[in-house]
Amino acid sequence: MVDQYVPGTCNIGPAEIAMRRRVGHAGLVATAVLAAVLLLLDAAPAWRLTLGLPAALAAAGYLQAWLRFCANFGFRGVYNFGALGHEERVAVEEARAQDRRRALAVAAGSVLVGLATALLALLL
Prior knowledge:
Layout lengths: L13 H27 L11 H16 L3 H6 L1 E2 L8 E2 L3 H31 L1
Antiparallel strand pairs: 1-2
């Protein structure tokens, strides 16, 4: 496990990773609860598209924890390997550019998982 900042690769430490994993768990639970509610209410199929939002949240949390990379930090040009809330600025512009590219990939992956979940739910 990397325990230091690596541009475009790793910008969060253990505390931040744990928080993102909790966000993934919360998004997964929210997706399951919403799916159950929609089924119990016999909601119109179009309402199943709403499952994409918590699914994207879950994907964002899990992806960031797995990759050890926070998309928000990547867009903002910061990193944190200490306590939650203790962010440090990335000094080198090329490193910030690498972080932005990685952040875009994480965001795109999360959105794709959300869209796939919504479309799959609509088809079922």
